[in-house]
Design a protein that fits this description.
Elements (H helix, E strand, L loop, with lengths): L15 H15 L4 E2 H8 L3 H13 L3 E4 L2 E4 L1 H12 L10 H11 L2 E7 L5 E8 L14 E3 L4 H7 L4 H8 L15 H14 L2 E4 L6 E9 L5 E10 H4 L3 H18 L14
Antiparallel strand pairs: 1-3, 2-3, 4-5, 4-9, 5-6, 7-8, 8-9
């Protein structure tokens, strides 16, 4: 996960000033009602005099507008955002490929992006970043596995509205793919509660014996769960650095949520919980 505090510890000059501009855009996008100079200085921890100069330059180029002392995104910034959103590279899962590759490198395990099928019964894998480890876990893009049995599936189910989940539970067959596959409605509900508590799903041998998968939910601009990202590999290896893998997966999920336009607190709690 990108730490914006890193940007506040360096002078507002040179190439890093470009990153400051992005900071300003991101903050104003999250506050459509506008932010005053004092609020931006406080929230971004930037020097007032230099920030004022930056805001005026952006305002003169119509990237910002200012009324009643509050700055908002201007027409040029809105047009730029719309243009970027329409680019094929910004569409999911393409927009998340960089984060997925980074997760693979950070954990040393294969990374996956998945969505739920329209009937919410299955977890469908839409992108894979394979590790260089000779012993690794992999699935084919486009393949599907029961949502209740996978880390990615449970990461998404846990953050769906409760009434939808309860309806789905009636249709899950709870087929035991391995001796450790969740086998009852009660066990699955307990697992989903734990996922909501920790923001991450950790499933050992859910669909394949000896494979440990760690997954976290991805949210869209509307705050609804849209997908999941996971890292998976041999249980014996992943277990040795499980806390670090969990952290990396959570960070990656939040980063992709931000790319998709979600601006709220991560993870976004579903209604009815």
């Amino acid at each position: 996960m990108f730490d914006v505090s890193l940007l506040t510890k360096t002078p507002l000059t040179g190439p890093r000033s470009i990153l400051r501009v992005v900071q300003v855009f991101a903050k104003l996008a999250a506050h459509p009602e506008g932010q005053t100079l004092a609020q931006l200085c406080h929230n971004l921890e930037l020097p007032k005099t230099t920030l004022f100069t930056m805001l005026k330059v952006l305002e003169s180029a119509h990237y910002l507008s200012q009324e009643g002392g509050a700055y908002r995104l201007g027409p040029q910034a809105v047009a730029l955002g719309a243009s970027m959103a329409e680019s094929p590279a910004r569409n999911f899962p393409n927009c998340a490929n960089g984060v997925l590759q980074s997760l693979c490198q950070r954990t040393g395990e294969t990374g996956f992006l998945a969505v739920l099928t329209p009937d919410r019964q299955f977890c469908k894998y839409v992108a894979v970043a394979e590790t260089d480890n000779w012993l690794r876990f992999s699935v084919k893009v486009g393949s599907q596995k029961p949502a209740y049995a996978t880390g990615s599936g449970r990461a998404m189910l846990a953050f769906m509205p409760e009434n939808e989940v309860l309806q789905l539970l009636e249709s899950f067959p709870f087929e035991r793919l391995t001796p450790k596959t969740v086998s009852s409605r009660r066990s699955l509900l307990a697992s989903l509660k734990e996922v909501r508590t920790h923001g991450v799903s950790c499933i050992d041998s859910g669909t394949v014996a000896g494979v440990l998968a760690v997954a976290a939910p991805i949210f869209g601009v509307d705050g609804q769960v849209a997908a999941a990202i996971s890292a998976g590999g041999p249980t014996s290896r992943v277990a040795d650095h499980l806390p670090a893998v969990k952290t990396a997966v959570r960070d990656a999920a939040e980063d992709i949520s931000r790319i998709l336009g979600y601006c709220g607190e991560w993870p976004a709690m579903p209604s009815g919980t």
